[in-house]
Amino acid sequence: MFNTLCYLLLLHFSLSQGLTFPQDISALKAFKASIKPTSIPSWSCLASWDFAAADPCALPRRTHFTCGIICSIDSTRVTQITLDPAGYSGQLTPLLSQLTQLTILDLSDNSFFGSIPSSISSLRSLQTLILKSNSFSGSIPDSVTTLKSLESLDISHNSLSGPLPKTLNLLSGLRRLDLSYNQLTGFLPKLPYNLLELALKGNSLSGYISKSSFDGLTQLEVVELSENSFTGTLGAWFFLLPALQQADLANNSLTRVEISKPSGGNSDLVAIDLGFNHIEGNAPTDFANYPQLSSLTLRYNRLRGPIPLEYSKKKSLRRLFLDGNFLIGRPPSEFFGGDTWVSGSLGNNCLVGCPGSSQLCSPSQKPYDVCKRAYGREPMA
């Protein structure tokens, strides 16, 4: 009974007064000191961080440390740093690594710059790392891949360069990865097998999209690889990823797409965007065998031949963009009935008999001479 009473009194004292570990306090001090004072507005979270006036984890917070940090239940360790988007400018201090109980670090929508310190690997408890919409530069440190507890990593909209870490797959707990809109180069390495969402759009990644990079990704639902420089053939294996729902590979340099019927006729694929590539051959008929597919974009490629009749019989298909190719023949009449269910575009092809009154036929078809040169003969025959 006496021991329990002592514990409760100590807990009460800790919760009301705060007993933040000295190493956490020194890390927070270094973090604030690394930020330009002129970029800390008087109304911001960081402006309320006054180490001379209060303990960072002290409760209740009335005038000091009012926001920006969250502490453990015993008020001894800092577990979260989530800054407001106030325009803070500065470099990320390596001393942040002293916050060994940190689970969330979110500095998004500010003006942090410089490299991401390799000492970030000391944050062994980190589950969420969000540095998006800043000005971080340099490469992604390989040490990031040692963060086994990391579930969400978002460093999109920065100026990171260089290749993706070769050991990226070691992030075994990672569920969401977003490195979009940087200046990353090189090939796709093997990816973490527990990923749900992958976003790498708006970089300069290149090479083939290899099956080995996606091996074992049985839970992957969303893939965003648009606005890169991927080349070659996209294999049929990609569309057969068991949990895939949405895939955006637009604005690359893919030249061929292989596709086969889903195993057992089952697939969760809902939307696919392969627009603005260099894909040749006929429009892939087997897309019609994906039972839930509602949006298909193959616009501005080098497709030839007729529009597959199977597309016009697929009632789940709501958006179809085939414009900007060299498709020939008459488009399926089902697209133009009074009860048509499809929106999109079949324009800028070599089609005949595409009703000008239909939005699907906008913009107009290519000039006859362009189509004849593309086929080397009468294209409508």
From TrEMBL:
Subcellular location(s) of the protein: Membrane
Cellular component, GO, one term: membrane
Main subcellular localisation: membrane
Pfam families tied to this protein: LRR_1, LRR_8
Signal peptide feature range: 1-18
Keyword annotations from UniProtKB, A to Z: Leucine-rich repeat, Membrane, Repeat, Signal
SMART domains registered for this protein in UniProt: LRR_TYP
Keyword GTP-binding appears in the UniProt entry: no
Protein name (record): Leucine-rich repeat-containing N-terminal plant-type domain-containing protein
